[in-house]
Automatic annotation (TrEMBL):
<dbReference type="Pfam" id="PF03167">
    <property type="entry name" value="UDG"/>
</dbReference>
<protein>
    <submittedName>
        <fullName>Uracil DNA glycosylase superfamily protein</fullName>
    </submittedName>
</protein>
<feature type="domain" description="Uracil-DNA glycosylase-like">
    <location>
        <begin position="7"/>
        <end position="163"/>
    </location>
</feature>
<dbReference type="InterPro" id="IPR005122">
    <property type="entry name" value="Uracil-DNA_glycosylase-like"/>
</dbReference>
<dbReference type="InterPro" id="IPR026353">
    <property type="entry name" value="Hypoxan-DNA_Glyclase"/>
</dbReference>
<dbReference type="InterPro" id="IPR036895">
    <property type="entry name" value="Uracil-DNA_glycosylase-like_sf"/>
</dbReference>
Length: 173
């Protein structure tokens, strides 16, 4: 099935961009980022920015933007059966327009990947589309996936990694 991502959650206050790979089936059905009830994204955002899952989706979006956090996905579209990143057909991957995003959101300094697939897809498709000045101003960090498919870490461990990573000034290689 062809999956298409959503527009970014972002405004002029964005200083951090959190990137997933592609919304899962529950998110696509709901029309909301990280809609699967066992995904740790919104509980983590609740702890860090007061944008927890108990709030209506629009309020969560507003709180993230007020905190300078943007959310998007690396892929604009892809073919995938189910929700797993491993099911994405690599030859079908089409990236979002990051050159335009970073031009429009020039205050972004930190790009945080929600898991390995997001980082890999960004490096494969998007990094080369950025000019030198944009690449130089950005710091990249890979964080543990919030997906329920990645149950090897507890919510507490994921939260601490996200807290450290979003405060990180280290460049990922």
């Amino acid at each position: 099935m062809l999956a298409r991502s959503f527009p970014p959650i972002a405004d002029a206050r964005a200083r951090v961009l959190v990137l997933g790979s592609m919304p899962g089936a529950a998110s696509l059905a709901a029309g909301e980022y990280y809609a699967h009830p066992r995904n740790a994204f919104w509980p983590i955002m609740g702890e860090l920015f007061g944008a927890g899952p108990e709030l209506p989706y629009e309020e969560r979006r507003e709180r993230l933007m007020a905190a300078g956090v943007a959310v998007w996905d690396v892929l604009k579209s892809c073919r995938r059966v189910g929700s797993l990143d491993t099911a994405i057909e690599r030859d079908s991957e089409e990236a979002n327009d990051f050159a335009q995003f970073f031009q429009d959101n020039s205050a972004v300094r930190l790009v945080a990947f929600n898991g390995q697939k997001a980082e890999t897809a960004f490096k494969r498709h998007a990094l080369r589309t950025l000019d030198d000045a944009t690449r130089e101003r950005l710091t990249f960090v890979r964080l543990p996936s919030t997906s329920p498919a990645h149950a090897g870490r507890s919510l507490a461990a994921k939260l601490e990694a996200w807290r450290a990573g979003l405060g990180s000034g280290e460049r990922a290689t």
